[in-house]
Specification:
About 65% of the residues lie in helices and about 5% in strands. By secondary structure, it is mostly helical. The two termini are about 20 Å apart. It contains eleven helices and two strands; from the N terminus they run αααααααααβααβ. The longest helix has about 30 residues. It is globular, with a radius of gyration of 21 Å.
């Protein structure tokens, strides 16, 4: 993300090195993902029912398939305990800080397995129900207006953009920040950014100027 923003101001050799590192990290991720997929394939009944390619396709699309097949038919909504447990906790509301306890409680009530992938939309849907549609539309509108304005991105908004990017990249499985610990890490990150931007009070110290060429199509 930072490379895309600063690409017009970075040395060409540095950009090449960063690309090489990114390709290396991505290759390692693909390798680990492949090993895990092959292991699950060889140890399950899928080895006798579908081909390897079919198994990989099902595995990659597991979240979407589970959402369509199961989440639409949930018998109860998790009332914020699935994705927003940390928020409920700091507000003094009853919730679960242990995701295993949450699964044991809500699984029988929902009538579907809480341990499967349902994509990040499915996880939020389990909390908000059909209100997820106005929720996502409102969130997208706020992000669009807050992050990009007059070719300037503040560091706190850059962090929001990073969080949204992580959510979109990993969202085909689940809501990345749904566990209590991940939500705590997210809150800590926002707190650190806020402290950096407010500790000294220098004017515009948190603004990152983006060259106009970046936005020219």
């Amino acid at each position: 993300m930072l490379v895309l923003i600063y690409k017009n101001n970075l040395d060409h050799l540095l950009i090449k090195r960063l690309k090489a590192v990114a390709i290396g990290i991505f290759s390692i991720f693909i390798l680990l993902f492949s090993i895990m997929t092959f292991a699950r394939y060889s140890m399950s009944e899928g080895a006798q029912t579908v081909s390897m390619l079919g198994w990989i396709s099902l595995y990659a699309g597991e979240g979407t398939l589970n959402f369509n097949q199961n989440m639409w038919h949930t018998q109860a909504f998790t009332e914020g305990d699935n994705c927003f447990a940390f928020i409920k906790y700091i507000l003094g509301m009853d919730t679960f800080t242990d995701f295993l306890e949450r699964r044991d409680y809500w699984g029988p009530k929902m009538g579907i397995s809480p341990s499967r992938f349902y994509t990040f939309i499915g996880d939020i849907y389990s909390d908000l129900g059909y209100f997820i549609i106005p929720f996502l539309l409102t969130l997208s509108s706020i992000l669009k207006k807050a992050i990009y304005k007059k070719h300037v991105i503040a560091s706190n908004k850059l962090y929001i953009l990073y969080v949204w990017g992580m959510l979109c990249v990993t969202g085909f499985t689940c809501f990345t920040y749904k566990t209590f610990s991940n939500s705590l890490d997210l809150f800590t990150g926002f707190l650190i950014i806020w402290l950096i931007n407010s500790s000294i009070g220098l004017k515009n110290k948190n603004d990152i100027f983006i060259t106009p060429q970046y936005f020219i199509k």
